[in-house]
Amino acid sequence: MLGRRSLTLGLAASLALAAMPSAGQRRLAKFARSSLVIRGGGREHRFSVEIARTPREHAQGLMFRRRMAADAGMLFVYDPPRPVSMWMRNTYLPLDMFFIAPDGRISHIVERTVPLSEENIPSRGTVRAVLELNAGTAARLGIEPGATVFAPALGR
Q1: Which of 32, 105, 127, 152 has its CA 20 to 30 A from that of 54?
Q2: How does pLDDT run across 61-117, given as a tens digit for each residue?
Q3: What CATH number is associated with residue 39?
Q4: Strands 95-100 and 148-150
Q5: What are residue 137's phi and psi, to 5 degrees?
Q6: Structurally, how many domains does the chain consist of?
Q7: Residue 24, CA atoms < 13 Å, CB-side half-sphere
Q8: pTM value?
């Protein structure tokens, strides 16, 4: 009887620990929010984005998120502009990544990234920022390289 009770208590404790966020998850960064507009092809698209500026915020990104509004995203800002590489570690949402050149134009787009992948996704050159939106947004809205991004976080 005692062995069975110990097993039950041990199982309950294990389940409780598994449900608790890890030490890293308990200290997740809070991001500033801002507006962002993409103009291209005679159209304008508005988004509400979280801004990641620091190395800690860049590392966290959209990790651990399970959902995101259709008009939401995250803007990773790099000052000074530089080549960057992204990945999807601990990111459960499939995303479209928009690499933004120093002049504010989208230089290229990686669509429908694979959740939880540790594959490096390179910027293919110097970028001022990377915008992450829900997967399928580029195709759904017809956003293509060459479109211009306007956001207070980019000074434009």
Answers
A1: 105
A2: 999 999 999 999 999 999 999 999 999 999 999 999 999 999 999 999 999 999 999
A3: 2.60.120.1140
A4: unpaired
A5: -65, -45
A6: 1
A7: 8
A8: 0.82
